[in-house]
Task: structure prediction
Amino acid sequence: MSARTLYQHIVDAHTVRHIGNSGQILLYIDRQVLNEYTSPQAFAALRAQDRPVWRPEAHLAVVDHVNATTPLRTAVTMRIVDEARARQVSLLAENCKRYGIECIDMLDPRQGIEHVVVSEQGFVLPGMVIAAGDSHTTSHGAMGALGFGIGSSEIEHLLATQTLVYRPQKNMRVTVRGRLAQGLSAKDVVLALIARIGADGAQGHVIEFQGSAIEQMDVEGRLTLCNMAVEAAARGGIVAPDDRLFNYLHGKPRVPTDAQWDLSVARWRELRSQPGAVFDQEVEFDASNLLPRVTWGTSPDQGVAIDGVVPDPQHEANLTRRSSMERALKYMALEPGQRLDGLPISHAFIGSCTNSRMDDLRAAAEVLRGHRVAPHVRALVVPGSSTVRAQAEAEGLDRIFKTAGFEWRQSGCSMCVAMNDDHLSPGDRCASSTNRNFESRQGPGARTHLMSPAMVAAAAIKGALTDVRKLLTKRVP
Ligand SMILES: CC(C)[C@H](C(=O)O)[C@@H](O)C(=O)O
Ligand code: SF4
Result:
């Protein structure tokens, strides 16, 4: 067989069989994470057919989309008033009990956003395949695994058979060279990448991230990259396992120990694209020239560097793109040529599976130390999990956020998707560390500007979009 990419190798190792000449395969799936929002239909269908779950221990359920993030984690303070949402949560617990699946419920000290919980529990290991009823399952590519989102009928199929009908994707290599300047992070890299290749730029592909900037990037940054690969329509994003990853995984709850650990690491070291493996598309990127990024529109690819201006749709030759730009500018209440730096905001949100882990909170706290949030801004920080929250408290980060005027909340998806009580009102403008700036994503009529957590912190202080480096350089003695 010719040289294989890491992605192809993982798919080969999980192929149960080819399905006739359809180009599709039956793919074995090692792990699934279930949430309260997308699993009910799948469980109902399973039950209606009286089918068992084939391998209950291969699934882990986590409540994350609809739970409250009130500052206190108790049954009373976190009670969900909305009946339909409350039912989604209780149904998940009931379904898990019926089928013998472990459920991390609202009050569990490990609760959090599923993609954050999965990696901190060591539920996905290098070389595995994980699928889940959530598009940001691509995050787990940072573990040297293949992760992708699936729909309800696939969740059902997976519960019953531990396999999925799958069409192998093409390979895209994104090589990121150079060194990120101070104040920049993986979020700036991925926002710049998506702006370059477009929101459909990686359609039909799995991206492998390579290059010196990726080698130097911490695992949490790689989680951010792979998480947002789906915003370029990729069917996965992956980074080959290395010592950084092994250090990250070592000692996590479900990770092998002792002799098994050594054996596993030796095997995981083999997981990389072979020399000569062919990528269908190549994108090269120099991280050294990158400036902090912000989005101006209603699609993650509608973004520029913070020193940039809102583009003019009249200069866009592609008519579909032009009209989507016009619509976005109207929705966002922006004018062509307008500077982004200095644009006033009403809200600041640090959270989501993209940017709510320790490194994200540390970077934001570093900017906030000694500053106050502008008086007209409501600022929230929602740690990705209770584990992150506890660790941040142990490091004293909560005090920095609170002293600066941020609300320090319990974990969950929260204002990333506004499926609980955390939402914006029409016309609100939010600097947000999330991944999607779609119309009404954070509440009906709300306007979202995507950026890194450090940039959100800087915007909260200024009360307007700003270049975080201005705040950081002042600190240099
Ligand atoms: C609710 C869920 C299906 C959805 C997803 O699949 O990504 C959500 O998590 C999101 O980020 O939009
Ligand atoms: S944090 Fe946001 S993007 Fe991530 S799973 Fe939740 S809703 Fe989706």
